[in-house]
Amino acid sequence: MKKLLTLLFLGLSCSLFAQTVKVSGTVTGSDGTSLPGVYVMEENTTNAVSTGIDGTYLLEVSVGSNLVFSYIGYKTQIIPVTGAAVIHVILEEDSELLEEVVVVGYGTQKKSVVTAAIAKVTSDDLKNVAPVRIDNALKGLTSGVTVTSNSGQPGESARIRVRGVGTINNSEPLYIVDGMPIGGGIDYLNPSDIHSIEVLKDAASGAVYGARAANGVILVTTKSGQKGAVRVSYDFTYGFQNPWKEYDVLNATEYAILMNEGHLSQGKAPVYSDPYSLGEGTDWQKEIFNYNAAQINHQLTISGASDKVNYYISSGYYKQDGIVGGNFNRSNYERLTIRTNTTYNLMDHSTKRNFLHKFTMGLNVAYSRSTSFGITTNSEFGGPLGSALGMAPTLKVYADDPEALLAEHPTAVKDPRNGKPFSIVEGSIYNEMVNPLASLSLPGTKGNSDKFVSNFWGELSIWDNLKFRSSLGIDLAFWGNDGWSPAYFLSTKNFREYSEVWSSMNRSLVWQVENVLSYEKQFGSHFIQALVGQSAQSNMGQNLRGGNRYLQEEDPYKANLGFATGTQEYQTAGGYVYTPHRLASLFARISYNYAERYMIQATVRRDGSSNFGPNNLYAIFPSVSLGWNFTNESFLRNRPDWFSSGKLRASWGKNGNESIGQFKYTTTMASRNNYPFGNPGVVNIGAKPNGFANADIRWEESTQTDVGLDLAFLRSALTFSVDWYKKRTTGMLMNIPVPAYSGDSAPTGNVGIMDNSGWEFDFRYRFSLGNVHFNIGANATYLENLLVELGNENGWQNYDSHKIGTLTRAQNGYPFPFFYGWKTDGLFQNWAEVEAGIQPNAQPGDVRFVDIDNNGVINDDDRTMIGKGMPDWSFGFNLGFSWKGLDFNAFFQGVYGVDVYNVTRRTDLYYINLPSYMMNRWTGENSSNKIPRFSFESANENWRASDLWVEDGSYLRLKNIQLGYTLPTHLTRKIFISSLRFYVAGENILTFTNYSGFDPEIASGGTSLGIDRGVYPQSKIYTLGINLTF
Amino acid sequence: MKKIILILSTIFALGLYSCSDSFLVVESKSSILESNYYNSAERLYSGLVAAYDPLQWFDYFYQYNSLNMVSDIMADDIYTGGANEGDQPILVKAHFYTATPTDVPNMIWTTAYSGVNRSNIVIAKAPEIEMDQALKNLYVAEAKILKAYYYNILWKFWGNIPYYDENLSFPYICDQMKADEVYQNVITLVEEALTANVLPMKARAGEEGRITRAMAYMLYTEMVLYQNDESRFGKALQYMKEIIDSNEYSLVNDFKNIWEEAGEWGSESIWEINYISEGGVRDWGNPIATGGSVYPVLIGIPGYVGNAFCDGWGFSPVAESAYAMYDESDIRRDGGILNFAKHADQTGASYTARWQDTGYFLLKYIGRKNGNHGYTADPNLNYGNNQRIYRYAETLLNAAELIVRGAGSGDAQMYLNAIRTRAQVPSVSATLDNILEERRLEFLGEGKRYWDLVRSGKAESVLTATNHLYRTENWTPQKKYWPIPQSEIDKSAGTLTQNPY
After folding, report:
1. How far is A563 from chain B (nearest CA, A)?
2. Is A707 exposed, middle or buried (0-12, 13-18, 19+ CB in 10 A)?
3. For position A4, what pLDDT does the model report?
4. pLDDT tens for each residue of A552-566
5. Nearest CA-CA distance, residue B117 and chain A, Å
6. Is the CB of residue A727 less than 8 Å from the CB of residue A757?
7. CA–CA separation, A761 vs A720, rounded Å?
8. Distance between CA atoms of residues B174 and A745, nearest Å
9. Rg of the Cα atoms in chain A
């Protein structure tokens, strides 16, 4: 074969002078089978063809160019064209997909032999989503993780739940970044620095983290350099944000009509003589939104690697103004991050000896600084958005008679943009609600945060594959806030007569020391990987704060404690020091596989925590998992080509939750149990123990079983996984019911039980049609939660509440938590229906409630489950393609089977503005069967906590859509740029939902998801960006 | 290279250090653990003060249960009052003898048992502490009497209650004891505390409010009389005589002044529950903070316009029959009851009548104008009126009654005369009925009438619906003990039997 080629070369050498040559040949795999559909292209041109069914191709190319052969699942080959007319190619299978590596706790494993349920998100997936914080980033990218943003405020965190709500207490998962557990928020981490995120979902994968893994573990690995020349890259994006939706509320005319009806309902004369003359009135939402708020991101990365050193240096700057209050400096977020990850190969004599032959050392240092301003995001009591929804459209933004207003209220708030004083509603009909623009014009409290996270480790290869690794991690954080307020007058219930300034500073230090001994070896068909390790962690911190009054001058630049003139009685100071929290653990893991066909892994970890008392100082968490690569069996050796691999796996294990609070196993002394003696009485100090102790208190424990199936087809171009799991949390901490005659408050005990179970599906397909490369991914999660036993005296407990009543509840036998209220059954259309019903205080147009317990009376006992905030289904899917220099990606994310409790409306304030659906109220027989007649009060309590307030919160969102173009490399190379990509992207461009409020995604305010008290909505963002690589 | 190995070895060493158990033992940075606390006289004293603390809670702890008021509304001289029949159902139901397990003053139960628990801590911790023995004995004796006082309240209202001398541990269940057995245990406890002979007869200056021997004697006698335990009558009389002979106490001539702020801890006062207005931090959200009382506002004149008193909520109106039972010359009539018509004549004041209004108010306790001076939290919760629990007048009447009932020798007539003279009324002969009637006149609104009726057997004939302006049910012996709160029955795993109310 070779000789033939040489002869052909010589023979054709005389045709070197010819510009083009027709090249043909056959493309085969390494086993000799011909490969159809292989893409054959002349490099850097559009001149290309695909191989036929027999694997042959024919292409006319210029001499001196290169022929590129590419095929999914095979390693691409580039062959120079020197004039030969026939070029046959043998393509090698690209087994990188199979050799894909997954990070597990304290090490890595080949994906093909992983037996636990681990979801992986790569930096490519993250690039498509372009997140600011990684907790928001995980939304919809992988199954088993439910992420709900707290609100749309810049810098706002998200509530993450891995496989459901594990406990009524702390359900936060454990975040580990480069081996260091991170507390206090993950927003210090720049998502561009992330190489991969692994979510350890089942007990077997999390068991190596023992007492902190009951709620799942999120492992983040940051980037390192790649071998080759130095890579320098710069990314820039600029985005415009706008609210994606405004809440439909009444305009001035509609408002006047309803207010008149309200007055008539109370037997009073109507207020507005001619509602139609009022026109549209003030649209408060338009006044308050900061349209086209800016979002800017700069990112610079320098990385590279050689035999001795591997380095990755990055720096990022991010700034985002909020769509509410961003223009008043009340809702803004700014972050600077600097990171350097370095690994040194100090000694590598592996070729010379097998004993103390390799020593590597690494140092990761990350610094992040952020400052932020925030407004109240989800409150019906006077947050700016709540006020914007509540202010009547008949009110003007600015005062009608500025001089008179300032004469009466000299400290009235003026618009900083033009000096005009804002209107003030006289009296207290709005209670705490005030002109939202006025409240935004007051200064905000500035939050600041500086965080250093550093990891230093050394790894020594002792003998063969026996390695010893020692590491020290440090998380040093400083955070606080500074704020001030001038004297102001917003309303009779909201005013301040003197200026005030306050400041608080916190710092905390966490250090962690770990030593791990590991060994792995392949003995023929047997492979063993074992490790044993130790970990210790200590956490301490303190807080200091102070305040004073009477600033010399109301100047924002000088608003600090030194400028205040208040005397001692007005100076406040306080603070505290945390009691240290410590963990000490030992762990061991062993994995074994036979010919990558049968796999087994077992882990055990013993954790001691300073939260545990001497009766239960150490907790032991075991787990075991099994796997079977059935496609490696001999009887499946002759399986069809398209069926690449299949694995069946099962796992069982226990994890724990050690966040049970400190000193629960004993009692501390409480002071302020005083009594006065003497005449006149003088207070004597009394002290007593703070409740009963429970010496046997222990951690909350979760036991989980998982069964999974991973399938790959078409040379792993198409992968599909399905998992089923059942998780039971026992020993949930709850106050145990104790009779009052015991004389003190009840102790906490491990008494509750919660179950979570569900299904998870992941799907990915990468394929090519001609020279267009597609990739499709999808994932779906189904979750079922059941509170088996609350553990307290009556098996239920109410949680969030509102002026209309209790909103959520925990109860044995129901999901935790659920929306609680009355069920409705239409309206009474006429007096006959009222008489036939059982509600004596009703009249036509009132709501008919359902008598759940059938006792002929509507009372508190008729409340039942009317919805829940945790979705049944969460899913996400993305479609992307790339063609030549163009790339496109669209990512959808959504939830289904979820409700939102829309309680943005205050029923206690008569004159507030109302949502537009109130126009559909009952005005006569059969005019409506849902919204009752409009009245300020109703004896029937029409607007008590019922399903009238609950709406379907399912949504599907086009979360991210991106279209990019990379300039051809031969152009950019001329100016030393190896790649230049421009792109436009949109975030939250489309949202499909039936929910009438600002945003169906709500996790802020209270203990529950899905309660909307006027949430700050997500913004719709259009972005332009550049990626530059040198 | 060497430096790196050094750093790594340090890390390894740190790792080894963390392997010891002591690494995980942390000490609180902001509080003292109970196991380290009780180790000195000052600390034991702070525990004792905590045992007094619940005394202040009865008047408001999410329910209005001033001890005198709660028993008086079950008798005949005081009505419930308030806005209407639906205002404060637990008081209304107690008043009408229709209490239920879910509508009963259960916060009295919770408060009293809190007191028992705190007293038990003092008694349990004292032995191990190294301190002056006499002081230790004093604190223990006070704790025992306090405990007896709290159990006395529970025993009188509920009778068959859980009784324990040591605080409970898991599963926090205690057997219910029959009323008679409770009495035996508590009276023995008082006798034990008195045998130690450490309590002063009268509180020293600056210590008013602490348990004294006189107070313990009064508690003993109250319980003995309520139980009609004739075997102990002799001892009780001896105790009463000891108080009289000590000359530490004497009747105050100006009866009206006993009830003013200046009259607190006067020569007649044996024991009061202290409330202070200066610096009072009691608040609706924090009812157990130390400060004043809400009771004076609760029973205050509703919609009052005038200069002498505060605006109140009109509870606890005094029955017209109660005003009428006094002689015209009896200074206790207008010294204890405010006849509003007279007051209006003199000052032009006015008020807005509420439910069960009679025009007569309990002058002893209604809030005076500025009675909450110096408060720092809620103005209504911080009136400084002390609750007068035991007065020397009761000592004299106890002694008289015991003598007449054959407890021992003594001049009952002399004691009765002293009361009558102070009241500026002619004397009456010292018969049992006269003495009981005298108690009614002397202690109107002070929470004694109901218990006197019950113990003397007169409740059934006096507390009838026909005798009463509002009641529709008669008192029966079953009504002696209130229903045990349902929440307690639910939490006690079937060990509590409900009272046959």
Report:
1. 29
2. middle
3. 55
4. 988 888 888 889 998
5. 5
6. yes
7. 7
8. 16
9. 33
Tokens of A559: 């608003």
Which residues have CB under 8 Å from A524's CB, separation 6+? none
Sign of torsion over alpha carbons B35, B38, B40, B42 = positive
Helix (H, G, I), strand (E, B) or coil at B415: helix
Query: CA-to-CA distance for A107 and A467, rounded, in angstroms?
Result: 12
Q: Residues 388-447, chain B: which have Cβ within 8 Å of A?
A: none
Residues 39-68 of B with CB under 8 A from A: 43, 45-53, 55-56
B368, B274 contact by CB (below 8 A): no
pLDDT band at residue A7, thresholds of 50, 70 and 90? low
> Measuring CA to CA, which residue among A556, A704, A564, A684 is closest to residue A625?
A704
pLDDT digits (tens, 9 = 90+) for A827-842: 999 899 889 888 888 8
Read off the tokens for A418.
């033009």
- Assess contact for B116 and B147: CB atoms under 8 A: yes
A471 touches chain B (CB under 8 A): yes
Pairing of strands A824-827, A466-485: unpaired
- Whether the CB of B162 is below 8 Å from some CB of chain A: the reply is yes
Residue with tokens 């007068």: B388
- Residue of B18, B207, B486 to mutate, interface with A, max A Cβ within 10 Å: B18
Amino acid letter, A467 = K
Distance CA(A186)–CA(A131), nearest Å, equals 13
Place of tokens 């609070």: A661
CATH architecture of A19-94: Sandwich (2.60)
Question: Which residues in chain B have Cβ-Cβ distances shorter than 8 Å to A684?
Answer: 45, 49
Helices B133-158 and B179-195 sit at what angle, rounded to 10 degrees?
160
Residue pair A781/A873 in contact (Cβ under 8 Å)? The answer is yes
d(CA B484, CA B496): 9
- Is residue A848 a contact partner of residue A832, using CB atoms and an 8 Å limit? no
Q: Which residues pair with A903 in a beta bridge?
A: none
Average pLDDT, chain A: 87
Cβ(A819)–Cβ(A896) under 8 Å? no
Q: Residue A330 has what DSSP assignment? A: S
pLDDT greater at residue A456 or residue A210? A456
Provide the token pair at A241: 């944000």
B8 with A458: Cβ contact below 8 A: yes
ipTM of this complex prediction, to 2 decimal places: 0.93
Dump strand ranges (E) for A629-717.
643-657, 669-670, 675-677, 682-684, 688-689, 700-713
The model's confidence at residue A15, banded by pLDDT at 50, 70 and 90, is: very low
Superfamily, domain A98-226: TonB-dependent receptor, plug domain (2.170.130.10)
Cβ neighbour number for residue A906 with a 10 Å cutoff: 22
Measure the CA–CA gap between A479 and A987, rounded to whole angstroms: 30
φ, ψ at B330 (rounded to 5°):
-70, 115
How much is the pLDDT for A781? 92
A114: Cβ–Cβ under 8 A, 6 or more apart, which residues?
A102, A104, A627, A649
Residue, of A528 and A798, whose pLDDT is higher: A528
Mean pLDDT of the A465-486 span? 94
| Domain boundaries of chain A, sorted by first residue | 19-94, 98-226, 241-288+801-1029
pLDDT band at residue A370, thresholds of 50, 70 and 90?
very high
Length of chain A equals: 1030
**DSSP 8-state assignment for residue A792:** S
User: Would you tell me how many other CB atoms lie within 10 Å of the CB of residue A652?
Assistant: 18
Q: Closest chain A residue to B279 measured between Cα atoms?
A: A683
- Tell me the residue length of chain B: 501
For residue A17, pLDDT beyond 60: no
- As a whole number of angstroms, the distance between CA B467 and CA A366 comes to 85
Residue B115: list chain A partners with CB under 8 A.
743
Supply A565's token pair. 């003139």
